[in-house]
Amino acid sequence: RSFQNMAPDVNLNRPFDPRLFLMDQELDRGVGLLLAGSAELMRAAEEARHKAGLSKPELQILMAIRYTPGQTVGDLRDSLSMTVPTFARIIGELDKRGLIEREREQASDKRRRTLTLSDVGTTLTTQITIVLRERLRLAYRAAGPDAVEGARKVLDSLTR
């Protein structure tokens, strides 16, 4: 049996039944909504990304540095699942454009470098973050505080 035949039909327009939240169909619906939500946020940022002259991988790296500054080069590359050559090329370009800063760790291994945004990188990502905040603010307002709290718990659990 192929995976496609095993996957249940998912109707994202059907009302949610909270009693059934662990059933495969509801889990599939949750995955679909997470992916659609992520795509919607990226669409919202698309104009600002394009105006800034950034590729999607460049934006992905800059936003990861913005929200988790001080990661080592290797840790960030691993978290984004990028190949060494691709990541090194993009980091080199971002460094050349003055968007990031690479600092040597103070620990025993002087080869390890941490990444932070430069002032220019912070300014650029702030413009994009404002767009993302507004889109998320609309969704939060529509869902209400209890739903936002629940969604935050789910997302926190996913990212740990």
UniProtKB/TrEMBL annotation:
Gene3D superfamilies cross-referenced by the UniProt entry? Winged helix-like DNA-binding domain superfamily/Winged helix DNA-binding domain
* Annotated GO MF terms: DNA-binding transcription factor activity
Where the record annotates domain HTH marR-type, the positions are 17-160
Q: What is this protein called?
A: HTH marR-type domain-containing protein
Gene Ontology BP, a term: response to stress
